[in-house]
Design a protein that fits this description.
mainly beta; AOC barrel-like; Immunoglobulin-like; 2 domains; eight-stranded antiparallel β-barrel; four-stranded mixed beta sheet; 19 strands; elongated; disordered N terminus
Length: about 280
């Protein structure tokens, strides 16, 4: 049994997945430049397409799942899911089947391959982006943890607001192995959607100004109120979070306050100011 990510129960089956996976992985081994060439296949007018540079970091888990029928018994099957805030998109949920071949053809005894798969990046109430992830070459999977992967991806389409999506880039994965089976996925690349203007403008904060107050004689702390608001050009008024909160007890001297507000497209604005409490 391998020291990392071992699932319970090997999966049985026919050679179809192995053959298809081997064909795709042969192309992957030629390098990520192949994925770049695939992106050019999409017939997209870049001048009329909204373009978003993706730099998305997702905290993920990948519990073991039942393998599809016909999966070779050397393959472990997991379900990789995660969430993250992506500027221009908002709250994004990722999900995809994650297949690890423990005895891949053409690799050394202590090496594995992550097989090609199809991932979905979903923005609730807005739509889904479909992504083809190319898999890896031979990777050594032994302690120390974590296990790192890097795969090319191509965006093959989408639904809702993301209909006709294209683009591509690199998916970098970090996997902790058992018992937590958690980690991180980082999506880096470009998303193009015909006719879609991505919202990259954060809310505007008002009221974040330095303030001086005087504490009554003998008091070492004073409860201080302030009012910071936020207005977004698409969402209108949005909630503001401040640390410390308005109405908190502030000690004598200077205290830094940080306030931030986010819109539904994942854009955040932050402001800092100082509360000074002086002796009365």
């Amino acid at each position: 049994m391998r020291p990392l990510e071992r699932g319970s129960g090997s999966c049985h089956g026919l050679t179809y997945l192995l053959v298809v996976g081997a064909l795709i992985l042969a192309a992957v081994s030629a390098g990520s430049s192949d994925a770049s060439r695939q992106i050019a296949v999409h017939d997209v007018d870049h001048e009329s397409a909204g373009t978003l540079a993706i730099a998305a970091e997702m905290q993920i888990t990948y519990p073991a799942r039942a393998c599809p029928g016909g999966t070779p018994k050397t393959v472990e099957c997991f379900e990789r899911t995660g969430t993250g805030i992506v500027p221009g998109l908002g709250n994004v949920q990722e999900s995809y089947p994650y297949f690890v071949d423990d005895l891949p053809v053409g690799c050394d005894e202590n090496q594995v391959r992550v097989l090609p798969t199809t991932a979905h990046l979903t923005v609730p109430d807005r739509g889904t982006v479909e992504v083809r992830v190319a898999g890896t070459g031979c990777l050594t999977r032994t302690p120390p943890l974590p296990f790192h992967t890097a795969e090319a991806f191509v965006i093959t389409g989408g639904s809702g607001r993301f209909a006709g999506a294209s683009g591509g880039g690199t998916l970098s994965g970090v996997s902790s192995g058992p018992p937590s089976l958690s980690g991180k996925d980082t999506w880096s690349g470009t998303l193009l959607v015909p006719g879609l203007n991505f919202d990259l403008t954060p809310p505007t904060l008002s009221g974040a100004a330095n303030k001086v107050v005087r504490a009554p004689k003998g008091r070492k702390r004073l409860r201080v109120n302030f009012n910071v608001t936020a207005l977004d050009d698409l969402d209108g008024t949005v909630a503001v979070s401040c640390t410390p909160k308005p109405g908190s007890l502030f000690k004598l001297g200077r205290t830094a306050v940080t306030c931030s507000a986010s819109d539904t497209s994942g854009n955040t604005q932050t402001a800092r100011f100082t509360i000074v409490v002086k002796r009365g």
